Amino acid sequence: MKRRDLLKTAAALAAIPLFSTWAGAIHLPEKTNLPNNSEGIKRFGDGRDWFFENRYGMFVHWGLYSIPGWHEQLQWRGRVSRSEYVKLAQQWNPIKFNPEHWLDLMEEAGMKYITLTTKHHDGFCLWDSKQTTFNTINTPFNKDIIGMLSDACHKRSIPLCLYYSIADWNHPNYPNQGRHHELPPQPQDSPDWVKYMEFLKEQVRELCTNYGEIHGFWWDMNVPVYKDPSVNAMIRKLQPKAVINNRGFDEGDFGTPERDYDNAASEAKSFDRLTEACQSVGMESWGYKKDEDYYTDRHLISSIDRYLARDANYLLNVGPTGEGIIPKQAADILKRIGKWKKSVDESFQNVQADSGLLNAPGVLATKREQILYVHLNKVPVGNGIKLKPVNVLPAKATLLNNDNPIDCAVNLCPSDHASQQPYLRLRNLPTGELANTVLIAKLEFDCPLEEIAKNPKQETNIELTK
To answer: What would the pLDDT profile of 189-199 be if each residue is shown by its tens digit?
Structure first.
């Protein structure tokens, strides 16, 4: 299949209602444990603790699929035969790839680490793997991409994490059986799980020994649900600072709620284990898509805030083009989110999540000493918010988004006539002017936060304003 033919195929397939066809094949991450845990997640006490300090990272899906620019699972979702798909390797020549440009954008966006797909489901490897010829060295580009990125990350002291797909649509020993995210059985293959695991372990050994210090290993698509703790044990021995996710051969170090699939994780007050949510700026694809639909800034910012405010990490994904360039529209989204995060970042740093403190719909809370940060995470329905059960006026109230003072009052509202209790209200918030972001209020009190919800007041006409 010539490149123009493959592009035509991808364009035609873009009109197919994919979600109705493959909805049953979506792979959801393992169940996330969700009890209330206001004490926070216990740290490792070793080199992996970097993960608690660097909580917002860049995810990058990049590979041969970026050439036709339709979806990272083009081979499977587009029903492209292996014999045709592998021809894309003859076109792999991303001469505009510059890891420094990726890292510049990452830092401008307020991100602290990067995770790159070393091998996605298609089996194409972005490093000089000695286990297969289906890699970036045997292409017109003839360069080790993981090596280039790792050198840039080490120079700038940026943690590098590596994604690796267990499912493999190219390797003859992987047992493709037509399960979710698998090809149908291939007549030219020799399925042998033992041999495939030997191949996988050697590739993991390459990644963990040839590129200096690695800070994370991000497994994906353990379709057979195979358990083998020795694989992660090898990673820990070779790379003691590497955090490992829960999609591999054991439970790993952290959970991975994806996009908006896991409603329980999205709405939980807290987590009982370390969690890193992941989302892409593109609505259809994680890899580059030429005519992608993008999420709104408000949707992405709300998602990021929702996890960071509950002691979780967050990976936001972009898909570079076949030339190695992160698309301008995606880059602009990251930059705009970066401006928001810079303005409100103190509400995520050295704080304790305590979203059970407030009884206010759509609101999350973080706190530090006598400071309460109020996150208007869900779209406000008006320009004011009542913060039950708080009935103490803060000494100072500031909207972090623009550093402006907030109009506050403790008074009785008509809707609370039954209890005759006044509560703290934030009034005249710029919810219209700043509708495409998440507002975060900084409330500084003269008393410990344990005392801001005092015993019920007897006065019914109290009016304290600041």
So the answer is: 999 999 999 99
- Separation of alpha carbons 98 and 109, rounded Å: 17
Clarify whether residues 147 and 240 are in a common domain.
yes
Which one-letter DSSP state was computed for residue 109?
T
146 shares its domain with 25: yes
State the CATH number of the domain containing residue 455: 2.60.40.1180
Q: What is the rounded CA–CA span in Å between residue 275 and residue 220?
A: 15
Give the CA count within 13 Å in the CB-facing half-sphere of 84: 16
What is the number of structural domains in the chain?
2
For 97-129, write each residue's pLDDT tens digit: 999 999 999 999 999 999 999 999 999 999 999
The angle at the Cα of 318, spanning 316 to 321, to the nearest 5 degrees, equals 175
Domain carrying residue 431: 354-465
Tokens 């216990």, residue located: 42
Residues contacting 459, CB < 8 A, separation 6+ = 422
Q: Do residues 416 and 398 share a domain?
A: yes
pLDDT score at 41: 85
Stretches where the chain sits below pLDDT 70 are 1-39, 455-466
